[in-house]
Structure formats: structure tokens, C-alpha cells
Write a structure and sequence with these properties.
The protein has seven helices and no strands. It has helices at about 10-20, 25-30, 35-40, 50-55, 60-75, 80-90, 95. About 20% of the residues are buried.
């Protein structure tokens, strides 16, 4: 019964979550790549398990862009990026990851 609302302004709810510092919830509501990349810059506020699981829902091109930005923004994200690359290398493409 948790998924009872299916039609709502996801971008607006995502903005509210982001303003409140609820980055994991914001990611759940955003669909635009620019929004996803902006929120991903706050990866230090999210659990690695959540991030790894979240990448399974993303299209391969978007996932690759987000992984690149995660590494570019903060080298401390390296462990999460490596775990995502290992787990989803078939979906994203091993050649693209390297």
C-alpha cells in the first residue's frame, strides 16, 4: 500500500526533499538527468547500499554520466563507483566504464 500515489508532481516533491536535506528521497522523485547529477554530488549524505541499488534503476547512459560526475566531484566516492561498476558492468557496458 506504500505506492498508492502514482500521479503527482515528482519534480516538485524532489525539490522539497532536496531543500530539506533528504537527498535519498530527492533521488527517488527526480527523473531529469541534471537533477540526478546535482543530487548525486551529495553522495556523502547517502548510504552506499542505497546508491548502489539506485543505479540499477537508471538507464545506462545516465548511470555512466552520474558515475563520472561522482568521481570528478569527490575522490572519496571511488569505493561506491567501483562497487557500482562491478555490479552493473553488463548493463552499463564494461568498455564504457573503463
Amino acid at each position: 500500500q506504500m505506492n498508492m500515489f502514482t500521479h503527482y508532481d515528482k519534480a516538485y516533491i524532489g525539490q522539497l526533499c532536496e531543500k530539506a536535506g533528504l537527498m535519498q528521497w530527492a533521488l527517488e522523485h527526480y527523473t531529469d538527468t541534471a537533477d540526478l547529477k546535482r543530487v548525486m554530488l551529495h553522495a556523502h549524505q547517502m548510504t552506499p547500499e542505497f546508491l548502489i541499488q539506485y543505479f540499477s534503476k537508471m538507464p545506462p547512459e545516465t548511470a555512466l554520466e552520474c558515475l563520472t560526475d561522482l568521481l570528478r566531484h569527490n575522490r572519496q566516492n571511488l569505493q561506491v563507483v567501483v562497487q557500482v561498476a562491478i555490479k552493473y558492468h553488463e548493463q552499463i557496458g564494461a568498455g564504457k566504464i573503463v
